[in-house]
Amino acid sequence: MSAPTTVRSATRRLVGLTALRWLPVGLTTPITVLLAQARGLSLAEIGLLFTVHGVVVMALELPTGGLADVLGRRPVVVAGAVLHLVSCVVLATATNFPGFLAAIVLLGVGRALDSGPVEAWYVDTVHRIDPSADVAPGLARHSAADGGSLAVGAIVGGLLPGLLGGAGAEALALPYLGAAVLDVLFIAAVVRLLTEDGPLRVGGIGAALAAGARTMPGTVTGAVRLSVTDGPMRLVLLLTAVGGAGLVACELLGPVRFADLAGGRDGGAAVYGTVLAVSFAGAAVGAMLTPTVRRLLGGSTRMTCALLLVCGAAAMAVLAGPDVLVVAGAGFAVYYLAHGSTWPLLSAVLHTRVDAPHRATAVSAMSLAMALGGILGNLALPPLAAALGTEAGFLAVAVVVLVGAAGCLRLPRAQPAGNAGSHAPVAEVAEEAGPLVEAADGTLIPRVLGGVPEAGRR
Known about the structure:
Blueprint: H1 7-28, H2 32-38, H3 43-71, H4 73-93, H5 97-114, H6 117-129, H7 136-163, H8 169-193, H9 204-229, H10 231-262, H11 265-296, H12 301-319, H13 325-351, H14 359-388, H15 390-408, E1 415-416, E2 428-429, E3 436-438, E4 444-446
Helix pairs in contact: 1-6, 1-7, 1-8, 3-4, 3-5, 3-9, 3-14, 4-5, 4-6, 4-8, 6-14, 7-8, 7-11, 7-13, 9-10, 10-11, 10-13, 10-14, 10-15, 11-13, 12-13, 12-15, 14-15
């Protein structure tokens, strides 16, 4: 299939690939903790597995992002999907901690490989088609497809064990086998839809790998230097880490909390799957509404993100509140809605700080930051929950998210004009799309098409 020729067609491909990527993940999310518990693992061991996953992702995010920048997006995404497929099969059959550990390592490597290339492909494709186009609406649809497919997968994955044999270990493993089948469909879609002109060199994959090995260290070093020295990017990564800690609280403590509220593990998978489905759908809706919310707040990304994180902190506090299933479910859903709405805004800021050769690496840096936040959560929450209860874990994360809300007020008011990748201290224009943009002093001025190159392009 030929490359897309319009921004709309590129966005459709991004949405389709995103939906297929996250549907198998949604299918398995409601039963991961319950399956491990059914096969004899303790909550502390499960937290350790999550930590290993985060460490693997953190260690490989930048190298694999650099690999995608120099080798090509499509082969790296396919490799990640293959590893995800294998990890699903291993998780479905694992009966002890070493088996789960092997599967988690495979899962982490696959996650690191596919965390940035599709998004980077989309941004570069849009820039090629229309250098003046705003990528934020497409990234919002990308987040909506992420949340929507997770929602569909979560409700199916949560209900499937009960429909096919109860909440025993064998029934709980079925969603993983279904996820492996969906991974095959995703691989076929990537091969067909994720078109690119390069950068595979003449001489085949071996030559491309050799060239990539020579180029990748410089690509990664440049991204690391930017992450450390560029204030807005550094803040985006810190806020992403806060989001990662919040998600860990939901994914690690949530199944236990809802199993208790549902009266046991038999009903826990179905209840948690339903809550996850509603929450993922809320994240999708929130992502779609993000541009509207930002307009209502005067086009300010910093105020929008701060408001969303305050809502997320309040939702965490609700999860620690009364032992009422509906109330806890509402708090869970609101947190996901806030997180899903914040992500495209932070991602859009990130893309203003990098140029095309470093884009996938920068997206990987964002995923790395989320993984680091998750690791810290995985290390801190299990002992805290064991000593003081799951409510204390949710409250601790609520405080962290509230601090993140204050940090949002330091996000840049506007994007740099001219060469966005160089971050020169020049006059600024706003991130808001459309015929008017916000100047550094907050006033709206006309956008000069062609005179302000799209952020991230040299």
